[in-house]
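To the wet lab folks,

You asked to see what we're planning to order before we commit. Fair enough. Below is the target structure as tokens, and below that is the sequence we designed to fit it. If anything looks off to you, flag it before the synthesis order goes out.
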């Protein structure tokens, strides 16, 4: 295969669509691949649990026959397992962390790993399989045109952006609220219900990001905050320590004790400025465009097989 043929690939992304939309980082990955010359379509899965996913097999096969992709790129383990049940085209699966960390989902993800033609993990140790790659999802740098949502930021306060929904138990909002409580004049803002542009605007306007998750893979919110130069305090989950290593104004807690997180949050708020996060994103090769180029190399290897 000639190198210029890499850019004519047809890729079918398979991912959950139960929320009515695809995860923003998946859409951004597809956009970056389109900019690189690929043709990308989406198959959105509707249904919960393995039985719910299984009902999507027939329409998935129909879309494969219509679109005629070179392969499927599925995101998350259950989506990947569904994709491997068809035998028309090869399957690449990206595992994001929750699909390997959660006990209920883990067996299905491991079965998907065994059936996939290629495996991508977003965090963890160096790959041990010949058909495995370690590749965190990339992020876009801010455009500078993002508009702040109205009536979000309180007047005369420091603004700490919580890295997710308060209702998501994995994010552990209770720990975040306990850590913020001793800090005077601080507003903890739930990151929920905002558009991509509004998220970036919030990150550029807030004083810190606080992530208190119990588990993560390679959290996009950390990379997005880095891209916006937002100081960060995080629990030591997924690849956060690797992403933030040496980044002034950002701290990773050694424990889940609220008093330690409070201490680090105070240090972060005292930083009072933007971090060199955008430069670190570029240095670590985590822009969406650079990630797309690495994906193209993986795709080429799959087609060679």
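Sequence we intend to order:
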């Amino acid at each position: 295969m000639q190198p210029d043929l890499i850019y004519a690939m047809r890729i079918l992304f398979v991912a959950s669509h139960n929320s009515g939309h695809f995860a923003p980082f998946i859409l951004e990955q597809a956009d970056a691949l389109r900019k690189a010359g690929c043709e990308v379509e989406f198959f959105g899965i509707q249904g919960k649990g393995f039985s719910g996913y299984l009902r999507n097999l027939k329409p998935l096969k129909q879309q494969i026959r219509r679109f005629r992709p070179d392969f499927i790129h599925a995101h998350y383990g259950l989506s990947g397992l569904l994709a491997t049940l068809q035998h028309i085209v090869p399957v690449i699966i990206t595992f994001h962390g929750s699909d390997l960390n959660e006990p209920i989902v883990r067996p299905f993800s491991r079965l998907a790993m065994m059936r996939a033609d290629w495996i991508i993990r977003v965090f963890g140790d160096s790959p041990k399989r010949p058909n495995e790659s370690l590749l965190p999802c990339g992020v876009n740098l801010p455009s500078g045109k993002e508009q702040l949502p109205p009536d979000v930021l309180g007047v005369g306060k420091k603004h700490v952006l919580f890295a997710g929904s308060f209702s998501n138990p994995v994010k552990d909002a209770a720990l975040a609220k306990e850590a913020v409580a001793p800090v005077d004049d601080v507003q903890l803002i739930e990151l929920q219900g905002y558009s991509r542009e509004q998220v970036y605007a919030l990150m550029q306007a807030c004083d810190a990001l606080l992530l208190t998750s119990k588990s993560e893979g390679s959290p996009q919110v950390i990379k997005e905050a880095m891209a916006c130069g937002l100081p960060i305090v995080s629990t030591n989950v997924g690849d956060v320590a690797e992403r933030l290593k040496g980044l002034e104004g950002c701290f990773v807690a050694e424990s889940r004790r609220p008093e330690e997180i409070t201490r680090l949050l105070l240090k972060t708020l005292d930083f009072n400025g933007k971090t060199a996060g955008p430069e670190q994103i570029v240095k670590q090769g985590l822009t969406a465009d650079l990630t797309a180029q690495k994906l193209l190399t993986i795709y080429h290897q799959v087609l060679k097989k």
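Structural context that might help your review: The longest strand covers residues 10-16. The two ends are 12 Å apart (CA to CA).

Thanks,
Computational group
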